[in-house]
């Protein structure tokens, strides 16, 4: 090798600034920035590969709605996904009318937009908070959430496990607060205290069009105080923020929860444009207009900015906590865990799944 060539090589080496780091496992890791590469490598193409794979496989998203009857749960979910994904139950059948317990009801749909397929499951909880005595009405809901973790765990522990484990875990629970303008009721506190530990809860003020601007602001502040003083965990939780950038973004969300929302399944003409809205005697409440209500903030959080994070938090935090507890309980005896009957009362057969795929 000539002197000229050796010189060129050493110059190149000098240009490539290698930061050698000692990792915890004792290996040295070099960090080479994009500007330091000799030329285009093509690593970023992995994003296209991931995109293609996700588009081909699709993804699951499971959302649960909880709140008293008539608060607009079905309407809101239909507004969120701009389709009839949840049936409105204005005329409950006889059996539902006399039902003394909370019954869970899951309905799945595949929604496709620009080639991306999402299998959306909406879990409705008719009967919640509708009885004179609402003691323990959260129990079937807690059982359902845990039952989905258990199902996933068993699939994971299976020797011949599936390449892709079907995910029925609840990624998000929208809790509907009536727009009373007062404060959180004991049932709200009890429910969120219990469920906040096992699932991501997003509280919303339902039918917010019934509140004045001042009432809405005061109600929101009171709810935030009640949540803090009762140590209730709602999504996004501060301790799960991954970096300062995420913390900044989530702080802004935390400062404005619970979102005061309005739902509708009707479109109206406003200035020549079709908008989703509720027509009243004094005008049209435009559901997606941030000057009218906070529906758009909720939609952005659940679908446009935090959908993947909701799935990640479910898997990495809530499911992980369940998994560790169950494996500790069964003393790492996997086969015993797989063979034993489920410890949960609320069998999956009690929840109806209508697949319209
Ligand atoms: N004013 C107002 N009415 C609403 C709103 N959302 C829904 N409604 C109306 O409230 C009624 C009940 O709505 P649903 O969506 O069926 O309520 P739900 O909570 O699903 O009721 P259940 O399925 O019986 O538990 C319907 O007449 C809706 O048109 C809202 O944001 N504001
Ligand atoms: Mg409904």
Automatic annotation (TrEMBL):
The keyword Cell division applies. Transmembrane segments: none annotated. It is found in: Cytoplasm, Cytoskeleton. Pfam families: Septin. One of its GO terms (biological process) is cell division. One of its GO terms (cellular component) is cytoskeleton. One of its GO terms (molecular function) is GTP binding. Residues 57-329 form the Septin-type G domain. InterPro entries: G_SEPTIN_dom (IPR030379), P-loop_NTPase (IPR027417), Septin (IPR016491), Small_GTP-bd (IPR005225). It comes from the Eukaryota. Keywords: Cell cycle, Cell division, Cytoplasm, Cytoskeleton, GTP-binding, Nucleotide-binding. Belongs to the TRAFAC class TrmE-Era-EngA-EngB-Septin-like GTPase superfamily. Septin GTPase family. This is Septin-type G domain-containing protein. It comes from Xiphophorus couchianus (Monterrey platyfish). The lineage of its organism: Eukaryota, Metazoa, Chordata, Craniata, Vertebrata.
């Amino acid at each position: 090798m000539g002197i000229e060539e050796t010189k060129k090589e050493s110059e190149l080496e000098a240009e490539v600034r290698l930061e050698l780091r000692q990792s915890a496992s004792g290996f040295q890791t070099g960090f080479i920035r994009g500007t330091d590469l000799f030329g285009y490598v093509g690593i970023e193409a992995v994003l296209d590969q991931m995109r293609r794979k996700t588009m081909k496989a699709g993804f699951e998203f499971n959302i649960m709605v909880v709140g008293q009857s008539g608060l607009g749960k079905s309407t809101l979910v239909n507004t969120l996904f701009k389709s009839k994904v949840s049936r409105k139950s204005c005329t409950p059948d006889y059996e539902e009318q006399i039902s003394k317990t909370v019954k869970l009801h899951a309905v799945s749909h595949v929604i496709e937009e620009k080639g991306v397929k999402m299998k959306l499951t909406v879990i409705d909880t008719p009967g919640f908070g509708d009885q004179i005595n609402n003691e323990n009405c959260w129990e079937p809901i807690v059982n359902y959430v845990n039952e989905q973790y258990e199902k996933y765990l068993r699939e994971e522990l299976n020797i011949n496990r599936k390449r892709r484990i079907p995910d029925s875990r609840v990624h998000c629970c929208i809790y509907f607060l009536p727009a009373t303008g007062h404060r959180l009721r004991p049932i709200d506190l009890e429910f969120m205290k219990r469920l906040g530990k096992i699932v991501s809860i997003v509280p919303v003020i339902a039918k917010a069009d019934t509140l004045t601007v001042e009432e809405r602001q005061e109600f929101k502040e009171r709810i935030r105080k009640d949540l803090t003083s009762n140590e209730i965990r709602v999504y996004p939780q501060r301790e799960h923020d991954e970096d300062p950038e995420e913390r900044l973004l989530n702080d802004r969300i935390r400062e404005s929860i619970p979102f005061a929302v309005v739902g509708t399944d009707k479109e109206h003409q406003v200035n020549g444009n079709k908008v989703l809205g509720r027509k009243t005697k004094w005008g049209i409440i435009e559901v997606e207009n941030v000057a009218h209500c906070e529906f758009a903030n909720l939609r952005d959080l659940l679908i446009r900015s935090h959908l993947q994070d909701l799935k990640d938090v479910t898997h990495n935090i809530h499911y992980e906590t369940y998994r560790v507890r169950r494996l500790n309980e069964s003393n790492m005896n996997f086969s015993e865990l797989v063979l034993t009957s489920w410890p949960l009362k609320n069998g999956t057969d009690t929840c109806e799944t209508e697949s319209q795929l």
